[in-house]
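User: Can you predict the 3D structure for this chain?
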Amino acid sequence: MHISLDGFVAGPNGEMNWIKVNEEIFDHIGKRISETDAALYGRVTYEMMQNYWPSAGDEPGASKHDIEHSTWYNKAHKLVLSKTMKGASLTNTTIISDNLPDRINEIKQSRNGGSEEILLFGSPTATHSLIQLNLIDGYWLFVNPIILGQGIPLFVDVKNKIALKLLTSRQFSCGVIELNYAVDKQ
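Assistant: Here is the predicted structure, written as C-alpha cells:
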C-alpha cells in the first residue's frame, strides 16, 4: 500500500495523484505479486480494478506493467469484502459479506494450510476492518516522500498495540521507500 510520510493512503477526497511510481517499482511489485495468486479488495477498490485490469494488457500501446499486471489479475483469485455485492456471481471471485473473521481464516487455512499469501490491495476501509479484527499478518508499505497534512489515514481506531518485525526495506530511485513488516504475534 502506498502511504505518505504522515500516514495517509489518499488525500481528503481520495486523491492518489501524489503517489510516485516508476518502472523500477512496477518491476519490484510485479515480481512480488507473481509469488501469489490471491488478492483481497474492498468493494470500491475492486470495482476500480475490475473496470481497468481485465483488458488493460490488450490495449494498443499497453505498457509492460499493464500487460504483466493484467495477465496476473485475470488469473488471480479475487476476494472482495462487500455487504452490497452479496450473492453476486463473478468469475474467479469470492464475495465475503459477513462473518469476516471466520471467512478470512477459512480462506487462509485453505491456502496450503495458511502458508500462501493473500495480498490486500489499497482498500483503506477494508484495511481498517481487517486491522481492527487482527486479521493482517503483515504490512507491505511504500512510503512516498510527501507530507499530505490531511486525508484518509492508514491506521484509525487501532485498539491494541501491533508489534511489527521488519523483514525487508528498499529505497527506489524516485525517493519511495518500501517497508515490508510481519506482525509479531508473540
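The chain has a mean pLDDT of 91. Strands lie at 2-4, 8-10, 38-42, 77-81, 93-96, 119-120, 138-144, 152-153, 164-171, 177-183.
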